[in-house]
Amino acid sequence: MELVESDLGLMGKIHNPDVLRHCVQLLDQLWKQIQTDGLNYGLDNRILEEIYGDHGKNRLSKDLYESYASEEERLRKGHASPEQCRTNILRGISDEIGRLSRDHGAWASVQATRTQLEIVCRNVPDEPGLDRLLRYEASLERSFERTLSQFERLQRMRLGQTVLPKLEVHHSVSRG
Predict the structure, then answer these.
(1) Closest by Cα among 97, 75, 76, 89 to 39
(2) Distance of CA 116 to the CA centre of its chain
(3) pLDDT tens digit string along 61-76?
C-alpha cells in the first residue's frame, strides 16, 4: 500500500517549515490541554489526527498514537493507571516537540548553507563572462610585464649599468 501525504496528516508535509511550526504549536496546545484538563480522548484524538493523519492508516514511523490509550484499551490491555498514562503521554509530547524542534534547527542550518551556496554560485560568471575575464587577466599581465621591463631598463640606465637592447618577442597561438 502506497502512502500519500494526506494519509500522514501534517507530518506528510513536515518539510515545510510553516507546517513544522504549526505541528509544534498543536503539540504544545495538546500538552497544555492535557496538563490542565487531563486526558480527553475525543478532543486529543482530533489534534493527533491533524498532526499524524488517520489512526487506522499505516504511518511512516512511531507516533503519539502508540502511547495514547483510551480508558477501555488501558483496562483491556492492562496498561498503567490513568495518571501514569497521562504522565507518559505528556513525556511523549515533550519528546516529540523536542524532536521536531531539533529537526527544524537542522532544516534551518541546511537552508542557510544552501542559501550561502546559491549566493556563491551567482558570483561565478557564466562561460562567456569567464572567458572575457581571462582575456582581461592576460592583457593586464602583458601590460605589467612591459611596464616592469621598462622600469628595469630605466633603473639600469640610472645606475650606469649596461642596458641590453630591447628584446621583443611576439607570438600568437591559434585555436583551431
Answers:
(1) 89
(2) 11
(3) 566 666 665 556 656 6
